[in-house]
Amino acid sequence: MKSEKIEHLLIQYINGEISSADKAMLENLFEQDSMLKEKAAELATLWLSLDEVKTKSEPSPAMDADFYDMLQNVEVNQKHKNSLLLHNNLKSWLKIAATVIMCLTAFTVGRYTASNNPVYKYKTVFIKQPIPDSSFNPHGDSKRRQEALASAKPAPHRISKNKLSNRHPKLFQQLRSLYASDRIMTILKLKEKTHLNTGELRALELVLNEDPNEGIRLTALYTLKPMVSQPEVQQILIAALGHQDDEAIQTSIVDLLIAAKSKQAIPTMLAMLDKKSVNTITQEKIKTSIEAFLN
Amino acid sequence: MTDESLMVLVKNDDLEKASILYQRYKKKLYHFYLFRNCNDQEASEDCVQQVFYRMIKYRKSYIEGNNFGIWIYKIAQNVLYQDLKNQAKMNSIQNGFRINEMYTAEPDEYSTIRQAIQLLPEPYREVLIMSKFMELKYEEIAQISNCSVGVIKTRVFRAISQLKEKYNSIA
């Protein structure tokens, strides 16, 4: 048998962990080798004496006391740490709850204190009325003026806006563009033409009456200026005069009509004398012009 | 209740259970240090305190299912190395006044056997202490020492054989 195997059997024998089969095998070896038996006995005695050494050297009671003190300290620290953690958690939850309550309060207060009035969006709608196309005596009284207005000839037949836009869809589309530059370009293109047809004139009338931009309306006037001697153009200017709220445009139209010596414009210009919105300089100009026409 | 299940409870902050583990392991650890620490009783008790302090401090690092004996032994070893380092520092400071405590211990009937243990080579002394005083199984010692059970049995046999020789030479 190998010496290593014998060593393993001996150590198991010494500490009492040997199996019965191994013990029998070892006892056979002891019978054959008395020295081995003696050695095993000596080692077993020493092994047992180590147990006695263990029992003789015991820790002092102070070690137990120190351990329990340490354990108590750790437990106290642990509890303190836990309570601190709980406190912090509670604090965080309270903060969240306070925030939610404040939001709800603000929402409730806002709901009951805010005005219930609906919001209106205002839109200006212009209603166009035909202006009678007739001459008028500026020296007559208001009754006569009314009779003259009543007996005024109806405005010549005009092609409706829808029909016009159907005939010149591109022109109308360009004049209704959102961009002022596009609209000005379209008007300036008309200016380059030597002769404008009825549709194009109506388009310019539309610009004069409806375009919100004063500059574009003035451009339209500038386009019509060379043709102001034409009765149809004068008609457009007379009709447009009633729609203008801008002094510069009113004055420009009056100037054009005076330059053209348009007698058809007299009733409309007389009506303007009663309007407070027309400035005094324009009114004086109108009066002087009408007197000049009559003389 | 097994050591492992008690340690799981300690890990889950049931610190009361640490006292049961202390009662089970205090003597084993004390003897472990006593025979590794030149019989310095006070130093050994301090080391045992350190082991249980670390056990509680690092309780969350214990992995459930692992052998508690091996885990606590590893802590004990770390404490021992730390203690040896501190001792070395102290010795270097008090170089001229060093007194070997082995000779300061009062002689008793077991002082010879204690001295004989101190004279054993380190690998043999280690396995003898683990086996006899820490009461670890050969399988557990093999796992800690990272070698086979056969090697451990051989080392224990040679440790006890050499102890006998040292004892006889001192006596």
From TrEMBL, chain A:
Residues 155-166 have a biased composition (Basic residues). It comes from the Bacteria. Residues 135-166 are annotated as: Disordered. This is HEAT repeat domain-containing protein. It comes from Mucilaginibacter dorajii.
TrEMBL record, chain B:
It comes from the Bacteria. This is RNA polymerase sigma factor RpoE. CDD domains: Sigma70_r4. Residues 113-163 form the RNA polymerase sigma factor 70 region 4 type domain. InterPro entries: RNA_pol_sigma-70-like (IPR039425), RNA_pol_sigma-70_dom (IPR014284), RNA_pol_sigma70_r2 (IPR007627), RNA_pol_sigma70_r4_t2 (IPR013249), RNA_pol_sigma_r2 (IPR013325), RNA_pol_sigma_r3/r4-like (IPR013324), WH-like_DNA-bd_sf (IPR036388). The keyword Transcription regulation applies. It holds the Pfam family Sigma70_r2. PANTHER family: RNA POLYMERASE ECF-TYPE SIGMA FACTO, RNA POLYMERASE SIGMA FACTOR. The keyword rRNA-binding does not apply. Belongs to the sigma-70 factor family. ECF subfamily. Keywords: Sigma factor, Transcription, Transcription regulation. Residues 21-88 form the RNA polymerase sigma-70 region domain.
